[in-house]
Amino acid sequence: MSKIPPKLNTDRKFPTNMTTAHALCLKAKNGEKGNKKTKRYAVPAFNITHFQGVNAAFQAFDLLGSSGLLALSNSALKHFGEGDPIFGLEVASEYIAKKAARSSVKIATHLDHGDYISESGRKVVQASVQHLTSVMADNSTDKKAKKAMPLEDNIELTREVVDMAHPLGLSVEGELGVLAGEEDEDTKSEFSTYTNPDELDQFLQQTGVLMLAPTIGTMHGPNKGKPGSKVKLNIELAHELLKIADVINPEITFVAHGASTLYPQVAKFAVEQLEKMSDPTDSKQKWLDFVGTDWDQIEGLIEAGFCKINTDTENRQTFLSALLGAINETASKIDIRWYDKQTTEALTKSYIQKLIMAGNYGVWHEPKIDVKKYRFDLTRPLSELV
C-alpha cells in the first residue's frame, strides 16, 4: 500500500444518466443546481429493498429534477437475488440502469454498509465495484467481538477498497465511529461511539475516502429515542469534524446514517387502519412508540457538510401504512397490481416529501410540481397532490 491514496478517476463513463454518489453529494455541498449557486442541500439516499421502491424513487426524481441516489444493503441484495447477494447485484443494478437511461436526471447506485472484514462481505464489495457506481466500506465495527474496530485496521481495510474502487471511478464511503440500532439482520449494533476528532485527520489522509460517515448521535431503526422525547444530535461535533475535513480536502462530504424522520401523518394513518382491523397483531402501541430523528437536527447536519442523508425506516413505515389502508379499503381484490399501485404511490409521495425537505429539487431541470404547495398526504391520490 502506497502512502498516497489513489485519486478518484472522474473520467470513468458510466451507463446513460448514471454517475457516482460523490459527484451528486459534492454538487449538494456546493449548492449547485443547474447553472445556479444556492444554499447547501442534501441528497437523500433511499434504501431500496424491492422493485416498487425503485419505480417510486424514479418517479419522484423526475417530478422534482432531483439528484437520485439509490442505496442497496446486503440484505436487500439477498432479497433481489433470492438469497444470493451477488446475483441480486446483477438483477438490481441492471434494472436501475435501464430505468436511468429513460430518466431526466442523474442517478447513482451505492452499496450500503459493505464491509471488507468478513469473507462474504469482501465478495459483495468486490462484486459491487463491478455493478454499482459507489460503495461503502464500513469497517468501523468488529461485529463478532461486538466492539469498535481498531483505527489502524479500519484504515487498512477501507484503504483496500479505495485502492480497488477509485481507479475504476467508483466513489467510496468510509465510517469512523460506531452507530447503534438495528436496520435489518445485516446492519445492527448494540452500542455506539462518537467519532473522535483526533482520529479524523489520520483516517481521511490515509484512506483517501471522499465520503465519510461520522457518528454524531443518529441511530438505525424505528426507535431512535424514547417516545415523547426529542432526539438530540451532536451538531457542535459535526461542525468541528467539517473544519478538519475541509482543510484536508474541501471535496470531502459527510454522510448521516439513521437519518429517517417519522412522519406523524403516516403513524396516525397506520393506527387508524389498525383500529379498523381491531389490531389483530397488537401493533398499535409499536406505531405509537416509533421515534424518528427530528428534521431540525438533520438540517443542522446539512449545514455541517452532511450532504448524503440515509433514509430507510420512514419509507418502510409509509409502505406498510399504505398497505394496511389498501387492505381495509378492499381485502378481496384479486388484482394484486392494485395493491402494488397503492403502496408504490405512497412511497413516491414519501420520497417527494424528503427530497423537498432536503432541498434536492431543480438540480437537473425545473420541478414539474409546485414544491411550496406540496403536502404529503396518504389519504389523497398523488395526482391531486402534484
Can you characterise this structure?
There is one protein chain. With 386 residues, this protein is of the alpha/beta class. It has a single domain, classed as Aldolase class I (TIM Barrel). Helix content is 45%, strand content 14%. The protein contains 14 helices and 14 strands. It has an eight-stranded parallel barrel, surrounded by eleven helices. α12 runs antiparallel to α13. It starts with 20 loop residues before the first helix and ends with a helix.
Topology, element by element:
Layout (H helix, E strand, L loop, with lengths): L20 H9 L2 E2 L2 E2 L5 E5 L3 H14 L3 E5 L1 H7 L4 H17 L5 E5 L7 H13 L2 E4 L3 E2 L4 E2 L2 H15 L5 E6 L4 E4 L2 E3 L7 H11 L3 E4 L20 H14 L4 E4 L7 H13 L7 H6 L5 H9 L2 E6 L1 H17 L6 H23 L23 H4 L1
Parallel strand pairs: 3-4, 3-14, 4-5, 5-6, 6-9, 9-12, 12-13, 13-14
Antiparallel strand pairs: 1-2, 7-8, 10-11
Helix pairs in contact: 2-4, 2-13, 3-4, 4-5, 6-7, 7-8, 9-12, 12-13
